[in-house]
Write a structure and sequence with these properties.
Elements lengths: L7 H22 L11 H5 L8 H23 L1
Helix pairs in contact: 1-3
């Protein structure tokens, strides 16, 4: 049975992909309601969802990236 070795480049790539997916998840969680498609009557009569604060989104994204970088450092140590 062959064992898989994770070279530094592969490990960094895996952590980068994980960080990208996590960041996309965090950014989509800050979006509005996706329960109703835009063309439905309920969506036309509903009040618009508040626009998320871009500074808050970027601050959260920076926090997530910092956490992921520290986790990646712990993994690669």
């Amino acid at each position: 049975m062959t064992s898989v070795t994770w070279s530094g480049g592969r490990r960094r790539l895996a952590v980068l992909l994980l960080a990208t997916l996590w960041l996309l998840l965090a950014l989509t969680a800050c979006g509005g309601d996706a329960d109703e498609p835009a063309g439905t009557p309920a969506a036309a009569n509903a009040e618009p969802s508040p626009t998320p604060d871009p500074a808050a989104i970027m601050s959260r994204a920076a926090d997530v990236m910092t956490e992921l970088e520290s986790a990646a450092f712990e993994i690669t140590r």
